[in-house]
């Protein structure tokens, strides 16, 4: 499935639609990978997902800290935490271990949004959903789900 978003308001609406249709895994974390060039909208989408999940903290890119964990607000069935991982600065999947990735993957209360999955593909299980972002010259974005 593909969708075109032209504004931040449309991105927020798309994130709400995504969360509304998400079926969290029952036997471990729900892993969603986010692919696309720098500036394509991966972090903006994560921020929109966080808003849709009633995260009260400010959501920023974890590029330099690699991982941020947010408690979900509101009443989100089955999900307790949003884990945002940015693998841009990593070279192999083994670098996920110090982040406690294996433990995070075992908790069915976790929704993990992982940017730059191609950098750590050797350590990733099959994601529940793969999302890719393409930015167009007019600053609109195509979001593709697989």
TrEMBL record:
SUPFAM superfamilies the record matches: P-loop containing nucleoside triphosphate hydrolases
Keywords: ATP-binding, Cytoplasm, Magnesium, Metal-binding, Nucleotide-binding, Transferase, tRNA processing
GO BP terms, alphabetized: tRNA threonylcarbamoyladenosine modification
Record-linked Pfam families: TsaE
InterPro entries per UniProt: P-loop_NTPase (IPR027417), T6A_TsaE (IPR003442)
GO MF, one example: ATP binding
GO CC annotation terms, alphabetical: cytoplasm
Protein name as annotated: tRNA threonylcarbamoyladenosine biosynthesis protein TsaE
Organism classification: Bacteria, Candidatus Kaiseribacteriota
Subcellular location: Cytoplasm
Similarity annotation: Belongs to the TsaE family.
Domain of life: Bacteria
